[in-house]
Write a structure and sequence with these properties.
The complex is a heterodimer. By secondary structure, chain A is mostly beta strands. Chain A is built from no helices and eleven strands. The radius of gyration of chain A is 14 Å and the shape is globular. The relative contact order of chain A is 0.34. Chain B is mainly β. In chain B, 0% of the residues lie in helices and 53% in strands. Chain B is built from no helices and eleven strands. In chain B, strands 2, 4, 5, 6, 9, 10 and 11 form a seven-stranded mixed β-sheet that branches. The radius of gyration of chain B is 13 Å and the shape is globular. The N and C termini of chain B lie far apart (37 Å). Classes of the chains: A mainly beta, B mainly beta. Chains A and B meet through β4, β5, β9 and β10 of A and β4, β5, β9 and β10 of B.
Chain lengths: 115, 114
Amino acid sequence: DQQVKQNSPSLSVQEGRISILNCDYTNSMFDYFLWYKKYPAEGPTFLISISSIKDKNEDGRFTVFLNKSAKHLSLHIVPSQPGDSAVYFCAAKLLAGGGADGLTFGKGTHLIIQP
Amino acid sequence: KAGVTQTPRYLIKTRGQQVTLSCSPISGHRSVSWYQQTPGQGLQFLFEYFSETQRNKGNFPGRFSGRQFSNSRSEMNVSTLELGDSALYLCASSLGRSVTGELFFGEGSRLTVL
């Protein structure tokens, strides 16, 4: 049973436009969410995160929105640049109990920025 | 600051063999996690070690095991390899008990089982 779902395996966006990547989760106990970006032949790198007590977090061109009632989060990239072409993973974790750092990842969305 | 280092980067094994993968975390990081990445299943959590103790384990069979040494370096072992074990194995380190959950990943070890 997949607890974190990224239903779009790929997304193509024109350079300069907004890219919106979506993520849904089923476990209401998740209280911290992260986005990772992965280029081919490299490990994932941390992009941005959001706590469940917030509904928005912004860092430069990247903004993550969290809708807890819908168990949905999205990553907005504005404006999209060619270097943004990568696979984006949504991840969630449980902070309660101070447990391990194990993250539950979605399967990823391959973002392609077209010139 | 050196990043997470994984060795070997690529390896080919045959069914039934066993394999050991190594991970050196970022200096000062005490937590090491292992993930398996496959096209069909995405990134799946294998286990996490902190101060030489396995702190958490994902839903993988007992053929998958790991350990952590006193210098925080970690190894994972897969015995009796199956074709389905072909994957990218990623190691990630963190300071440990990190509230933000930010993990720093290595480039991975690409295992092909023939």
